[in-house]
Amino acid sequence: MAEIFRSEGCVVKVFSNDHAPAHVHVTSAEQEIRIDISGPVAVVLESGKKRWQNADARFTKQALRLVNDRLAEIKTAWKSIHNGK
């Protein structure tokens, strides 16, 4: 796991052995959500399985804003962690 940055009580991180699509995990003391960063705008990552995210609407909005504000930096870090893939 690599921490990309911390802001507003949130930690944005990437797991080196994680699955596609490119995404980050945003956590706080009590909530967690996965954000898809593979497109031009970050969006909530929805899986085919039951949604496991523990995030209310306020946290989701905050996480999306934090990630979109630094999307280019996050994508660069994700590529570096995943060996340029």
UniProtKB/TrEMBL annotation:
Pfam families: DUF4160 (PF13711). This is DUF4160 domain-containing protein.
